[in-house]
Structures are given as structure tokens and as C-alpha cells.
């Protein structure tokens, strides 16, 4: 290769480097059974808890016609889909934090790894962690409560995709904040999603919120997903309007999340903070 050609920086995207990073995170997860157990424990525990609460409320309603009596699986579906959002965000954040805890971030980026490849690996690992956590809980809902979230059919895939993409956007925002403010912002990885829970209308419709808060709720893709899920469970109707809003808002949030992350990463590199993130 001519010398002048060697001086040109290469900006190609390498699936091999992405695969290497996914393999690194997979080995970390596979080598620790408590981590795998923790992934499946909380979704399963929440599913069982809310499932029994739902059964109690249905029996207390005397078999009446309201939402409680009609929606035998609405709480179970809501819990499982909510955990997709939470695990999607946490999967990105935790994989990043593992690099921080091991003081390995600077070492990664003296290699040919590109930020875009790293983000792709974080998202891929987030998807794997989410599936490991949610699928056992969804399977156990069938013998426990006689309800299968898979009965939602193909719309379930659309709900899943929208929630995990929103989780990725939030995860990238959290990573950017940690890059900017250091490990003092680490706690955001566990609280940001729960800050959005009241306006994500996981267990109730948007209409129960105060009038002034409803536009805030409808500005979140998660609210449209859960409204669409309830319409499908109660009425057997797929609300394409909610699905379209969720997709459109997710495109905006994902673009914003990637832009904020890349800006924070660039600033951290300029300041030399990548070599000090473990401090």
C-alpha cells in the first residue's frame, strides 16, 4: 500500500469489530450465572405479582363487565412490555458501565473500533439481554395464568421493537451524560426509565392523566405503544394511528440520542476523559 494511501483514515463500518464487541459482552454475561439469573428474575417476579393482583381484582369485581373483568391479560402484557423498555435501556447502560468499572474505555478506543460500531454492539447486547429476561417470564405466564402474550400476534413484534428502540435512545442519552459528568451520573441508569413511567401510561389510559399532562404523555412512543396494546387486548383492534406515532417519535428520539452520544463522546475524547473514566 502506498504511503500516501496509508495516511488516509479509514471510516468503514466493520461488522467483524461489532461482532468482537458483542462476543466480549456475551462472554462476560455467560461467565456469571448470577447475572443471567438476575436478568430473568425481576421480569418473572413482576409478572407473577401483577398477575395475582389482576386475578384478585377480577374475582373481587364479581365477574362484572369493566376493564378488570375483561382484561385478564392486560396487566401481564403491560408488565412484560414495560420490562422490554427497561431492559432495553439498561442493557445499553450496563454494557457501557462495565467498561467504566473495568477502566477499559480508553483501551477500546486506541484500537480501530469506531463509536458507531460500539453503539451497534451495545444495542445488539441490549437486545440479547432483553430476550433472556423477558422470554422466560412470558413463557411462565402461560401455566401460571393461562395467558400468552404471544396471542397478541404480529402487533407484539411492533410493540417490542418500538419499546426497545426507545430504550436504546434513553440508554445512549445516559451514556452521554456519564461521559460528560463522570461516574457521579451512574445512578441515572436505574432511575431515568422510572421517571417516565407515570406518563408512559403502562397500567392505565392517557385519559386518566390531568389534561395538562396528557400532551407530555402523548409525546412519548411508550404511551402510544401501551394505548395500542390495551386497544388490541380489550377491543381486538390494532390502532395504526398509535403505531405510526410511536414509530415517528422513535425516529426523532433515536436520532437525538445518537447525536447527543456522538457529541459527548467527541468532547470526552478532546478532554482526554476516555482515559480517566474509571476514576
Automatic annotation (TrEMBL):
<keyword id="KW-0472">Membrane</keyword>
<feature type="transmembrane region" description="Helical">
    <location>
        <begin position="243"/>
        <end position="265"/>
    </location>
</feature>
<feature type="domain" description="ABC transmembrane type-2">
    <location>
        <begin position="34"/>
        <end position="264"/>
    </location>
</feature>
<dbReference type="InterPro" id="IPR013525">
    <property type="entry name" value="ABC2_TM"/>
</dbReference>
<dbReference type="GO" id="GO:0140359">
    <property type="term" value="F:ABC-type transporter activity"/>
</dbReference>
<keyword id="KW-1133">Transmembrane helix</keyword>
<feature type="transmembrane region" description="Helical">
    <location>
        <begin position="188"/>
        <end position="206"/>
    </location>
</feature>
<dbReference type="InterPro" id="IPR052902">
    <property type="entry name" value="ABC-2_transporter"/>
</dbReference>
<keyword id="KW-0812">Transmembrane</keyword>
<keyword id="KW-0813">Transport</keyword>
<comment type="similarity">
    <text>Belongs to the ABC-2 integral membrane protein family.</text>
</comment>
<dbReference type="InterPro" id="IPR047817">
    <property type="entry name" value="ABC2_TM_bact-type"/>
</dbReference>
<keyword id="KW-1003">Cell membrane</keyword>
<feature type="transmembrane region" description="Helical">
    <location>
        <begin position="156"/>
        <end position="179"/>
    </location>
</feature>
<dbReference type="GO" id="GO:0005886">
    <property type="term" value="C:plasma membrane"/>
</dbReference>
<protein>
    <recommendedName>
        <fullName>Transport permease protein</fullName>
    </recommendedName>
</protein>
<dbReference type="Pfam" id="PF01061">
    <property type="entry name" value="ABC2_membrane"/>
</dbReference>
<feature type="transmembrane region" description="Helical">
    <location>
        <begin position="131"/>
        <end position="150"/>
    </location>
</feature>
Amino acid at each position: 500500500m502506498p504511503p500516501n494511501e496509508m495516511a488516509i483514515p479509514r471510516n468503514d463500518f466493520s461488522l467483524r469489530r461489532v461482532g468482537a464487541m458483542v462476543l466480549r459482552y456475551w462472554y462476560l454475561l455467560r461467565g456469571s450465572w448470577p447475572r443471567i439469573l438476575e436478568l430473568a428474575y425481576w421480569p418473572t417476579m413482576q409478572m407473577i405479582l401483577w398477575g395475582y393482583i389482576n386475578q384478585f381484582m377480577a374475582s373481587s369485581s364479581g365477574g362484572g363487565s369493566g376493564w378488570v373483568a375483561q382484561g385478564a391479560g392486560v396487566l401481564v402484557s403491560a408488565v412484560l412490555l414495560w420490562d422490554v423498555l427497561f431492559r432495553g435501556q439498561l442493557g445499553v447502560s450496563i454494557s457501557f458501565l462495565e467498561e467504566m468499572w473495568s477502566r477499559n474505555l480508553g483501551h477500546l478506543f486506541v484500537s480501530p473500533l469506531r463509536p458507531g460500531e460500539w453503539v451497534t454492539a451495545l444495542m445488539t447486547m441490549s437486545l440479547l439481554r432483553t430476550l433472556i429476561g423477558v422470554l422466560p417470564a412470558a413463557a411462565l405466564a402461560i401455566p401460571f395464568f393461562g395467558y400468552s402474550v404471544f396471542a397478541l400476534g404480529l402487533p407484539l413484534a411492533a410493540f417490542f421493537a418500538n419499546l426497545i428502540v426507545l430504550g436504546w435512545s434513553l440508554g445512549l442519552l445516559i451514556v452521554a451524560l456519564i461521559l460528560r459528568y463522570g461516574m457521579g451520573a451512574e445512578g441515572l441508569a436505574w432511575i431515568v426509565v422510572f421517571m417516565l413511567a407515570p406518563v408512559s401510561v403502562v397500567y392505565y389510559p392517557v385519559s386518566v392523566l390531568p389534561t395538562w399532562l396528557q400532551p407530555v404523555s402523548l409525546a412519548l412512543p411508550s404511551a402510544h405503544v401501551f394505548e395500542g396494546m390495551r386497544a388490541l387486548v380489550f377491543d381486538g383492534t390494532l390502532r395504526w394511528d398509535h403505531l405510526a406515532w410511536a414509530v415517528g417519535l422513535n425516529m426523532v428520539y433515536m436520532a437525538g440520542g445518537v447525536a447527543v452520544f456522538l457529541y459527548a463522546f467527541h468532547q470526552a475524547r478532546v478532554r482526554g476523559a476516555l482515559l480517566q473514566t474509571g476514576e
